[in-house]
Here is the input.
Amino acid sequence: MKSDRPVLILGPTAVGKSELAAALALRLDGEIISADARAIYKDLNIGTAKPPPPLRQKVPHHLIDFLDPIEHYDVMQFRRDALNALEEIRARGKVPIVVGGSTLYISALTGAFFAGPKADPQIRQRLESQPQERLRQRLEEIDPETAQRIHPNDRVRTVRALEVYELTGWPISRWHRESKVPFPYRFTKIGLTLDRTVLYERINARVDQMLAAGLLEEAKALKAKLTPAMPAYRTIGYEELFEYLDGKISYEEAVRLIKKHAREYAKRQLIYFKREPDVHWIDVTGKSLEQVLDEVSQRLESPAQR
Here is the structure.
């Protein structure tokens, strides 16, 4: 069974996206394109739950583990790289399977996405040094339409919106209206959900597993090369441990915050992805991987996906 469209698997953290993608790739003779804005970085291994090396040898994965954490990488670069990987996979006669939970990366592939100006390191550094409350107030002044669309705590999108305004003199909402470039492929979209209590329990357990696997040691090594202005620094699981290593909070508090922030992130992901049109949602609560895989396969065999 082959899918004529590339497949997109989305959902909150810890719901089982990576496991499903790997199993589906084996069934379809496919390759995986990661849409994870932190798995792109080398050395962020445990905290980003990257697929283990044996699995990556068995199933080709793209856009994982290729960038130094001190380097900058924006969503337009991801969009170009994802398109290149998708076309290379199709040229080999394989099925592209995009999987990830980074909402900005997913939106770059599933709808029209404006080709805005490249990031300016100096402007971005100046903006990122300011408190989120001040950035939010400024955004509400210059672009209330975008301020309504962006979550008040979404620092990445807030900074980008202000950066675009400073570079072009146009609010980013105007760019979205007047300069849109559609992604050249349509996806069969598969969304995974899980009972909220079970999901949160799974997130908490995953954090414990990461810590047992050496997350603190990994954070110590990264802290020596990262600064707070770098996106890799502001990664759930690492940023809280950096605060612990700086003596700002206790280890117990760092662990509590990692779990809390991961649960909050999962909630934001679900809210965002539920707005995505044409998603075939699967509640994986109580289902085995094989059962979910069979349901996905049935969806891909539907004439509407041809």
